[in-house]
Design a protein that fits this description.
alpha/beta; six-stranded mixed beta sheet; four-stranded antiparallel beta sheet; 10 strands; binds adenosine-5'-triphosphate
């Protein structure tokens, strides 16, 4: 459903700081796959997500999503069918708007009319029913400004808003990394529930090897712009955290981390 074909990306081309990251990078993702992506610092994980979302340009190659060539599509166009949750809880939602307004905005994504158009009683009840599923009591705070919520509550809301309209792909960019261990665990469980219940094809970058092994049905380990481990669900259970950690340590030492 997602194909990255012969991707080339060099940062600061032609300058003294030129850095070649991807040289003919390929990746094929099947419908419904939930992929964990791990790797050393600077291995290209964020760049890969940015390339898929259109946040950075590529020098060569093609990106196909559901057999459509999206290579030339701008980021805001792709955001209509690619949901994204960032590491920073402040990024995925609007702090100066209420929970209700944030949900209405997400609900009307890509539509031309204003955000208040969709907020009637029936829609509000629907948003409340979605919030109830988070089990955080946010359904009783719909008029609270999102900036006043905790990081975990904001990430839960970001997960909800990014998946409330039909999307082709969900991108999770270290979305639990800024949270305390317990909240991060809760958000990971919530993520798993949402992804499984909707069957959304998902790419999750994480530094948490346990999450990478325990969640999702495929794991990729990246190093220097290449995939060094690509394991399916059963393979990754066999490999286990210890082996992954061993490989991870080897590549991290190699790049001086
Ligand atoms: N905007 C940029 N300009 C120049 N170089 C960049 C830029 N963004 C990333 N890079 C370089 O590309 C390489 C890959 O970076 P990237 O952020 O994609 O890695 P990462 O695997 O996400 O790392 P981390 O785990 O530290 O977040 C690094 O060498 C980085 O310095």
């Amino acid at each position: 459903m997602l194909t990255l074909n012969q991707i080339y990306k060099t940062y600061n081309k032609g300058s003294i700081n030129e850095s070649i990251l991807f040289s003919g990078f390929n990746l094929t993702v099947s419908e419904g796959q939930f992929i964990s992506i791990v790797g050393s610092n600077g291995s290209g994980k964020s760049s890969l997500l940015n390339i898929i979302c259109g946040s950075i340009d590529i020098d060569g190659g093609k990106i196909l999503l559901r057999n459509k060539d999206i290579t030339g599509k701008r980021e805001h166009k792709r955001s209509q069918f690619i949901g994204r949750v960032f590491q920073d809880p402040a990024k995925g939602t609007c702090p100066n708007m209420s929970i209700l307004e944030n949900m209405s905005l997400a609900d009307n994504k890509g539509k031309s009319y204003g955000l208040s158009a969709g907020i009637n009683k029936k829609r509000t009840d629907y948003y409340k029913s979605l919030l109830e599923q988070l089990k955080l009591g946010l359904e009783d705070k719909i008029n609270v400004m999102v900036g006043a919520l905790s990081g975990g509550q904001r990430q839960a809301l970001a997960l909800l808003t990014s998946t409330m309209t039909p999307i082709d792909l969900l991108i999770l960019d270290e979305h639990t990394a800024a949270l305390d261990p317990k909240t991060s665990e809760n958000i990971m469980e919530l993520t798993d529930r949402i992804v499984k219940s909707k069957g959304i094809t998902t790419l999750m970058v994480t530094h948490n090897l346990r999450f990478a092994v325990n969640y999702g049905n495929r794991i990729l380990m990246m190093h220097n712009g290449e995939i060094v481990i690509d394991a399916t669900d059963t393979e990754k259970q066999k490999i286990g955290i210890n082996k992954l950690l061993e490989v991870f340590n080897e590549i991290s030492i190699e790049c001086g981390n």
